[in-house]
């Protein structure tokens, strides 16, 4: 993709995320007034800390209540998995991103991705976020993606699980996600993303980048515990166009839309920087006032892909088109 087009997409994505956030904050104008006043009284960092708390309160109605996960529907063993039992990333399945934001990942953020920040040891993948000057950036981080390698086939009914422990801190933006048809060209399936400043909840989102209003469904899953203190399972199921997202065994989000009609990739990374948070007053990442303890890690115990044992495993003979809710 041409550089200017990538930048356009990055800007477009940032704009869409801003729009989503504004939609969720139903009393945005009054909040911004409150935020401005708070910031004046307490400084930008403390006001930013308070902002997600307000968002949590105002979006609590979006939380889907607990529903037990269906058992017995999925193959007893994964169709594919990476247990991260080796000593390095399996390059047959994954590519580690090197360089600044852009390309297939993380437009508008403020880190340089390095191979050195992606390690495998002790049975887990470790994505490391560090405060260090490198490549013209003040921070480094890691990202791996399976695009062009380990892809989930189109029209497959599947359950994708990430068992992970999240980082915690200002400006950290960990994500477990993927795309149909490449970067921002079709569906985007965000199994987990969150701000490191609020590691007790995560966003789970289905986007469709072929639409102007790209956000099909977005939920805030509130864990009630600090997700940076232990491993939890973040999962996404697709069954005949129905999408279900889970945090551990809790069904936290669902919608009926359509099956991915092209192969889906997987991405694991930590971005750093405020990006869309800047739009509501969060200051840009600033090493001089960064209170975080570094390094911070996104640890992933495994990624497992299950397919169904029932009749839904048969893909349709031809594209079924949209299944609008
Ligand atoms: Ca493992």
3D architecture notes:
By secondary structure, the chain is an alpha+beta fold. It has a single domain (3-313), classed as Jelly Rolls (Sandwich), CATH 2.60.120. It contains three helices and 17 strands. The strands form two sheets. Strands 1, 3, 4, 5, 6, 8, 13, 14, 15 and 17 form a ten-stranded mixed β-sheet that branches. Strand 14 (242-247) and strand 15 (250-256) form a beta hairpin. The radius of gyration is 19 Å and the shape is globular. The chain starts with a helix and ends in an 18-residue tail after the last strand. Residues 1-72 and 313-325 have low confidence and may be disordered. Bound molecules: calcium ion. Calcium ion binds next to strand 17. The site of calcium ion has 7 residues, from strand 17.
Topology pattern, helix = H, strand = E: HHHEEEEEEEEEEEEEEEEE
Biggest sheet character: 10 strands, mixed
What's the multimeric state?
Answer: single chain
Look at the structure and give the CATH class: Mainly Beta
Structural class: alpha+beta
pLDDT averaged residue by residue: 79
In CATH, the topology is named: Jelly Rolls
Task: State the helix count.
Answer: 3
What count of structural domains? 1
Distance between the termini: 32 Å
Spell out which ligands are present.
calcium ion
Strand % is 25-35%
Shape: globular
CA-atom Rg in angstroms: 19 Å
Unreliable residue stretches? 1-72, 313-325
- Indicate the CATH architecture: Sandwich
């Amino acid at each position: 993709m041409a550089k200017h087009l990538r930048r356009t997409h990055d800007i477009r994505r940032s704009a869409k995320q801003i729009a989503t956030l504004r939609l969720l904050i139903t009393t945005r104008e009054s909040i911004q007034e409150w935020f401005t006043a708070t910031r004046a009284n307490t400084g930008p960092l403390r006001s930013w800390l308070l902002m997600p708390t307000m968002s949590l309160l105002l979006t609590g109605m979006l939380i889907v209540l607990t529903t037990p996960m269906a058992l017995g529907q999925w193959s007893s063993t994964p169709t594919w998995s990476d247990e991260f039992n080796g000593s390095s990333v399996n390059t047959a399945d994954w590519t580690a991103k090197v360089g600044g934001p852009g390309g297939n990942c993380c437009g508008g953020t403020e880190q340089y991705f390095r191979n050195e920040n992606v390690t495998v040891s002790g049975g887990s993948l470790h994505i490391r976020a560090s405060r260090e000057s490198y490549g013209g950036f003040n921070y480094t981080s890691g990202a791996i993606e399976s695009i062009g390698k380990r892809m989930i086939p189109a029209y497959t009914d599947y359950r994708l699980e990430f068992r992970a422990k999240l980082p915690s801190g200002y400006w950290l933006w960990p994500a477990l996600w993927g795309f149909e048809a490449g970067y921002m060209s079709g569906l985007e399936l965000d199994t987990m993303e969150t701000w490191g400043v609020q590691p007790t909840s995560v966003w789970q989102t289905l986007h469709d980048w072929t639409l102007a209003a790209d956000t099909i469904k977005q939920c805030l899953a509130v864990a009630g515990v600090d997700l940076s203190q232990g491993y939890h399972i973040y999962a996404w199921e697709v069954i005949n166009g129905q999408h279900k997202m889970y945090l551990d065994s809790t069904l936290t989000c669902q919608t009926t839309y359509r099956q991915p009609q092209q192969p889906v990739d997987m991405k694991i990374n930590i971005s750093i920087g405020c990006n869309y948070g800047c739009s509501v007053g969060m200051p840009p990442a600033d090493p001089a006032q960064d209170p975080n303890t570094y390094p911070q890690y996104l640890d992933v115990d495994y990624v497992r892909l299950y397919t169904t044992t029932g009749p839904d495993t048969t893909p349709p003979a031809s594209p079924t088109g949209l299944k609008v809710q």
